[in-house]
Model the fold of this input.
Amino acid sequence: MKTKTIFYCRECGYESAKWLGKCPACNGWNTFVEEIAPTGNAAKTAAGAKNGFSKNIPTRLTDVSVTREERILSGIHELDRVLGGGIVKGSLILVGGDPGIGKSTLLLQLVKSLHDAAKVFYVSGEESEKQLKMRAERLEIQSQELMVLSETDMSSILHFTDEIKPDILIIDSVQTMYNPEISSAPGSVSQVRDVTLSLMKLAKSTATAVFIVGHVTKDGALAGPKVLEHMVDCVLYFEGERHQSFRLLRAVKNRFGSTNEIGVFDMANDGLREVKNPSLMFLEGRPSDASGSCVVCTLEGTRPVLAEIQALVSPTGFGMPRRMATGMDYNRVNLLIAVLEKRVGFNLQNQDSYVNIVGGLRLDEPAVDLGVVVAIASSFKNISVDKGLAVIGEVGLTGELRSVNQLEKRLLEIHKLGFTSCIVPYANSRNLKPINGLTVYTAKNVAEALGFIF
Done:
């Protein structure tokens, strides 16, 4: 019997009858892979044949009864914050991150923090039961409600899940799982899509919360088709520098809570520890009288976080000055340097400029623009910024300071950490409420803001 082949895009799952150099859906180059298309009975995969929704009938929206979603408190406050208040029963949660960043450790610590309050079924396609036992002993996990299995066959996993009936199912990782009725290799587009569909139907039909560990590519994106992220209820990225101890758990999609929420952890010998106040950690060791340092307040989801921005400006020995940015968009830094040159009159054309966000934090919010400008100006003039001063503001191309959102929440965080003064945009002064012990200066443009400092 002649087999039929089809080509899939690894990035988005687009199907084509022939190989294409460029994907017409996601514009990715060299992303098409050849796979054998399932035919006959093989096309009726376990995902489509079992646990289906075929008995459902159309219903008027007004007749649908809605109750508040039932959640399981994990005991890890940072994880509960990112998930929107706890683990929703029947939800499908995807956890991605670099190798060795701590994804499996976080999920095992979830078992420890539950204190036998929920039955957990941990399925690993990458480690044996003995390896899981060794890691659990290192994390001092003695749960009686934890069942483990080393398996990659989805039909077997679904069978044991039906027998155990866990409250939480953990799959580590989705790229190692496969459906035996599909001839393609584990990790391929069709396998990842079918396995995820099986787990989604399992979660919705049995109210089991399912955690899926996903690998990432060298570019930092989740491996597999983009449809993987569309199918799940929540996408969590576990981030952090290999040479830093802290880890960030970031929600980029959440159907049951706020997106772009973060949880902060510190990696120690005995596992991950929660960081209750990340601002203190990021400001630890800040120099008191060094030029080129400035503190800003950024919002990560609903949480205000203080971060230190450092800049180093020095004369260049080459015809073209060098620019470098770590933890911030390189083009944004170049734009702010151009504003300093044009609107304030700083001669930076023959100066090398280096900008770094201390602690490996990544800042993308425009409200930190003024902090970058102040740090560069401080290093250029070789004048230190008052240690009790923080700045907030977005900088426009004409040098004006634009208003920022949730200013009151930022100012309260600044005051809580002992800062005595802050520079904010004049556009925010209309609804500004005074805070005892915190002096707030308002500035209309960059030149006016720098006048308060130098």
Notes: The first helix runs from residue 46 to 49.
